[in-house]
């Protein structure tokens, strides 16, 4: 009888762990962005995170779970000041990992495209590319001197992760 109770408790624990792991890993991943320090004169307007297979652009090989986190921000800084703040940003950890490699993405009004999926939404550049901070370095935008102040912008991170039971595939 004791062995049966222990076995039942173990099964229940595994089911609870497996049924909450995608939410837990996604929330931990999103918090890497949400906890990242903001530039001065900047405030958070909205924070979102989503996970699900409808984010096909993030699907890795092997059926990993895609995850996206983003924040809409308002600032009195110029575009150049914003990019200068993030240009040396450290890479964030992958979901459910200590390994770092996720780069912050930055999207400005008029330069971003909203993708609404059944599991949530994400942003890309107008050309559907991810606008990682390093993509601005390649365009030499850090040295521009004219830019409007008092604007909104979006920070985003995206990745995918492996999880135990893939019964929802």
Plain-language structure description:
With 169 residues, the protein is of the alpha+beta class. Helices cover 28% and strands 31% of the residues. The protein contains three helices and eight strands, in the order H-E-E-H-E-E-E-E-E-H-E. A four-stranded antiparallel β-sheet has the order 1-2-8-5, with helices on one face. A hairpin with a 6-residue loop joins strand 3 and strand 4. The longest helix has 33 residues, at 2-34. It is elongated and about 75 Å long. It starts with a helix and ends in an 8-residue tail after the last strand. The model has no long low-confidence stretch (mean pLDDT 83).
What is the average per-residue confidence, as pLDDT, rounded to a whole number?
Answer: 83
Sequence of strands across the biggest β-sheet: 1-2-8-5
Query: Percent range for helical residues?
Result: 25-40%
Largest sheet: 4 strands, antiparallel
Question: Which outline best applies?
Answer: elongated
Structural class: alpha+beta
The tally of beta strands, per DSSP, is 8
- Low-confidence sequence ranges: none
Order of helices and strands: HEEHEEEEEHE
| Strand residue content | 25-35%
Q: How far is the first residue's CA from the last residue's CA? A: 36 Å
Computed CA radius of gyration, to the nearest angstrom: 19 Å
Number of helices: 3
Q: Which terms summarize this structure?
A:
169 residues; 8 strands; alpha+beta
Summarize the helices and strands and which ones pair or pack.
Layout: H1 2-34, E1 42-51, E2 65-75, H2 79-86, E3 92-93, E4 100-102, E5 105-107, E6 112-117, E7 120-125, H3 133-138, E8 151-161
Antiparallel strand pairs: 1-2, 2-8, 3-4, 5-8, 6-7
């Amino acid at each position: 009888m004791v062995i049966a109770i222990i076995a039942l408790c173990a099964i229940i624990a595994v089911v609870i762990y497996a049924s909450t792991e995608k939410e837990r890993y996604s929330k931990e991943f999103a918090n890497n962005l949400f906890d990242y320090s903001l530039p001065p004169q900047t405030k958070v307007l909205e924070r979102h995170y989503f996970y699900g297979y409808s984010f096909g652009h993030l699907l890795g090989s092997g059926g990993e779970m895609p995850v996206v986190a983003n924040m809409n921000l308002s600032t009195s800084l110029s575009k150049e000041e914003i990019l200068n703040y993030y240009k040396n940003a450290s890479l964030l950890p992958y979901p459910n990992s200590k390994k770092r490699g996720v780069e912050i993405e930055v999207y400005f009004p008029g330069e971003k495209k909203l993708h609404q999926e059944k599991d949530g939404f994400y942003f890309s550049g107008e050309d559907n590319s991810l606008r990682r901070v390093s993509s601005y370095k390649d365009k030499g935008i850090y040295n521009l001197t004219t830019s409007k102040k008092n604007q909104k912008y979006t920070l985003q991170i995206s990745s995918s992760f492996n999880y135990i039971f893939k019964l929802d595939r």
